[in-house]
Amino acid sequence: MSNPLISARGLTKKFGDFTAVNGIDFDVFKGESFGFLGPNGAGKSTAMRIIGATSQRTSGTISILGKDPELHGPQIRAHLGVVPQQDNLDMQLSVAENLYIYGRYFGLPRKFVKGKVDELLAFAQLEEKRDAKVETLSGGMKRRLTIARALVSEPEILMLDEPTTGLDPQARHILWDRLFRLKEQGVTLLITTHFMDEAEQLCDRLIVMDKGTIMAEGSPASLIKDYATKEVLELRFGSDRNQEMGAKLRTMCDRIEELPDRVLMYTDDGEALLEKIYAADFHPKTSLVRRSSLEDVFLRLTGRTLIE
Amino acid sequence: MFIPMAVAIADARAGKRGERVYSGRVPQLLERGFIAFKSSTYMIVISGFLEPVLYLLSFGYGIGKLLPTIAVGGESIKYAAFIAPALLATSAMNGAIYDSTMNVFFKLNHDRIYHGMLATSMGPLDVALGEIGWALLRGFSYACAFMAVIAPLGLVESVWGLLAIPAAVLIAFGFAACGMAITSYMKSFQQLEIINMLLLPMFLFSGSFYPISVFPQWLQFTVNLMPLTHAINLVRGLCLGNLELALLGHALYFVVMIIIGLFFTTKRLNALFMK
């Protein structure tokens, strides 16, 4: 593989006594879609801000396209498109004006930016909203506008911090579709998320973070293979009985997790296990066999669920 | 290899002075100001212009009837001609303060517009200078408009009065730089009110409506420390044609304000956005 676009070693960020990012190492390569998966407060956004040259690390090294963000902030930011967790669109301007002025902030010539605005309005499916004020847009539209805005400088790296948090399922799918297109065009994507389905859909490779450290790294498929079984059997015995039943079922599978609302049994053949359970005269109220997901990986690594 | 234009533009600035905090994008920020201005509330703009005109009408012609002339440095001048320069200086201050406090606070804490700006290849000094530049443009237009009212009324005694316009811009610059620096440290709208609480007494006691020589020594001393006193003395000196060395001293007061204000604004924006 070629040289990484982004390379971090022992990257650490402290706010007073609190260590937000604790000595993490990672490399991001050109054209890949790289994810930071973890619960709120895992240090994902902090890591993103350091990459985005808007936060200074406490220690460790990081190089973005061979440069140190601490020394060359504006030059590095010229390569990046940033979609922050919290929208920061210019409320005093219209949709098209938001795109236009953002291009100008990069020092781009007027004519170039005007052409870009039309192209991006089409990309974000916001042509009809061209002259609308930003306030009148729905959450999904604002998000698409923020992504379009981040693309105005034709960045090689697009950084998305929790891109679909707060959106309804339909808006999420529209957004994912737009991100797929960018990926196909060769844009390197950096995504933080606490949604495992989002990570599975969008990321070629990801790091699982918890409390500022990296718990595991790999493709979604390889992480599931390494840290979970092929299938999961979910059983519900009623909230007060899950613990007790879990203890009795423990010997029947490779691994078991007792959550307050359900028991998760890890196995390569869920249906077969379920038959065995009925044969042994256990009677769960509901049962569900499903594929293992990144949620299971996270549970295995940390003993906690992603969304608590 | 394809190099995006944004990258080429940023790379061209490599090695220049202050490249980490400044990218030469003040014109682009002023452009934003104009675009936003087109659809803004004209009332704020109009009231900024009307305020000094109303003061001039009510005080100049009201009190002017009771007190036709006033003695300044051995000369007697029309009362309206005495207060007009003070009102010019005050409107420059008010415009600059409005733009650099309320407006800036909103963009900083509510709309988070600066966060978006600083994710581009701009730096915090671009943002600071751009916002202050916009405040100056506004100060400049108010000064011109007010001058267009008072000059035909014969309230500007000297040709040197033309210099009152650049002087108003200097004054606006000083107040805007300090206003933005202070605002960047503020946490709530309530704290911003402190600025307004300081401005009103400063306006009333800084010799706008009568010479400060009527005050006791200790109050004169205090008033002489206030920036608006220097602003008024500078503009009044120019409008009356009283060219004296002290005018340079007043101007210098604002140069110092500009330097201090810009220093703290950039420092604070850096701390806020690069934390």
TrEMBL record, chain A:
Its annotated compartments are:
Cell membrane
Main localization is: membrane
Q: Which SMART domains match?
A: AAA (SM00382)
Decide whether keyword ATP-binding is in the record.
Answer: yes
Instruction: Report the Pfam families cross-referenced here.
Output: ABC_tran
Q: Name one GO molecular function term.
A: ATP hydrolysis activity
Q: Record's Gene3D superfamilies?
A: P-loop containing nucleotide triphosphate hydrolases
Give the UniProt family note: Belongs to the ABC transporter superfamily.
Any one annotated GO CC term: plasma membrane
Please provide the record's keywords in A-Z order: ATP-binding, Cell membrane, Membrane, Nucleotide-binding, Translocase, Transport
Show where the ABC transporter domain sits: 6-236
Its recorded name reads: Unannotated protein
TrEMBL record, chain B:
Q: Which UniProt keywords apply?
A: Membrane, Transmembrane, Transmembrane helix
In terms of Pfam families, this protein maps to: ABC2_membrane
The yes or no answer to whether the keyword Transmembrane is present is yes
Q: Where in the cell is it found?
A: Membrane
Q: Where is the ABC transmembrane type-2 domain?
A: 43-272
* Annotated Gene Ontology cellular component terms: ATP-binding cassette (ABC) transporter complex
* Signal peptide start and end residues: none
Tell me what topology the record assigns in the membrane: Multi-pass membrane protein
| Transmembrane spans | 42-64, 76-98, 132-153, 159-182, 194-219, 245-265
Q: From the Swiss-Prot or TrEMBL record, what is one GO molecular function term?
A: ABC-type transporter activity
Protein name stated in the entry: Unannotated protein
